[in-house]
Each structure stands twice: as C-alpha cells, then as structure tokens.
Amino acid sequence: MPAPRKSSVTIYTPDYWEEACKHLSRKDRVMKRLIPKFGDACLESRGDAFTTLARSVVGQQISVKAAQSVWDKFAALPRKLTPANVLKLKVDDMRGAGLSARKIEYLVDLALHFDSGLVHVDAWKDMDDEQIIDELVAIRGIGRWTAEMFLIFHLMRPNVLPVDDLGLLNGISVNYFSGDPVSRSDARDVAVAWAPYCSVATWYIWRSLDPAPVAY
C-alpha cells in the first residue's frame, strides 16, 4: 500500500519506488543516468478519485492557469465537492464558473457514475489496470489517456505505459533516439526493459524534459 506523508494535505508516495529505481538502473542505461539527477523526488498522489477526475475534465483543452481559475470557482460552488452535491448544482451557476456546456455535461455524467455506483471505487484495488480503464472510459469526457494518468497519479499503479502521451514519446526520442521521431511501437520496445515499473520510468522521462515535478 502507498505510504502517507505528513502535510497539510495527505500526500501518498509509492512503497515500491526505491525497488523500482534499483531495477531500472540495472536494466536501462538511460534510467541509470537519469534517476540520480532527481534525488528523493518521486510520484505523489493526493485527493480523492472523484475530485481528481473532475479536475481532469475541467482542465481539458485549456491552459494550466485557466484551468486552475475555473476549478477554483467550480469547487467553491458546493459546500463540499462530492458527486451528490455536484448533481444538485444549477447549470447557470456552473456556467458562471467558466465551464462550457460540454464540460458541464461531462461533470454531471462523472458525478452520476460515482453517485450511482457505476464505477466500483472500493473494488479497484483488486482489479487490473485494463478493467479500471474500461470503467473510466465509459464516462463521457474521459478517454484512455486520462484513465492512464489516473492510474499513474492517483492509484499509483507501477506498470502503466501511456503510449499516447506526447511527452513520453518526445522524451524517448531525446533520450534514446538522438531526437529522431519515435512511434508507439518504438516506445513499447524501449519499455520492455522497464517492466514491471513502466510508470516510474515514464515519470523520469517526463522529468528529463521538465525538471519541475509532474503533477496530475
């Protein structure tokens, strides 16, 4: 299970991180070079599943700054951000927070899935990655990429390889192919040495492009 870290907000870090770093350093020359550059920094998870997914919907196709502004206004509408409370919100109030009609539809569908039990949050710990992805992509506005980011950053699954992520492909290009373009197939070939810790390797690839901590 993830280990909680003391903070004003409960932050969880993976209990497999140290072992993963040792494995990757043994198996992959690029990882052996990258991992020491970032010290003790590692993947972090905070918040609950509904809030994490709602934030992903709000942030779609807009800048990080704009997404934060809209999120702050939206999250302030209910007394507490729960699926049931979101379903009670007025459309006009949600529009007033800066949400488009489509994103309102997505957030309502997300809330309905959680409130009605169509997503089996309590069972996720016993489900494999693809089963969870199948549940999440059934929600309007959530595609495979978002589901994979959720697996990495919220559930902290260790072996997710998001081959549709441009940052991952760009990072593999820079670190393994001298900047030449790479395909999803190339990424899978490189990641053979990363298993069973593809999530950890992906995190370090992202960091190699942007040293700021990756958050979701």
TrEMBL record:
Belongs to the alkylbase DNA glycosidase AlkA family. It comes from the Bacteria. The keyword DNA damage applies. Gene3D superfamilies: 1.10.1670.40, Hypothetical protein, domain 2. It catalyses: Hydrolysis of alkylated DNA, releasing 3-methyladenine, 3-methylguanine, 7-methylguanine and 7-methyladenine. Its EC number is 3.2.2.21. It comes from Variovorax gossypii. It holds the Pfam family HhH-GPD. It is an enzyme of class 3 (hydrolase). This is DNA-3-methyladenine glycosylase II. Residues 58-210 form the HhH-GPD domain. Keywords: DNA damage, DNA repair. One of its GO terms (biological process) is base-excision repair, AP site formation. One of its GO terms (molecular function) is DNA-7-methylguanine glycosylase activity. InterPro entries: Alkylbase_DNA_Glycosylase/TA, DNA_glycosylase, HhH-GPD_domain. The keyword DNA repair applies. GO terms for cellular component: cytoplasm; protein-DNA complex.
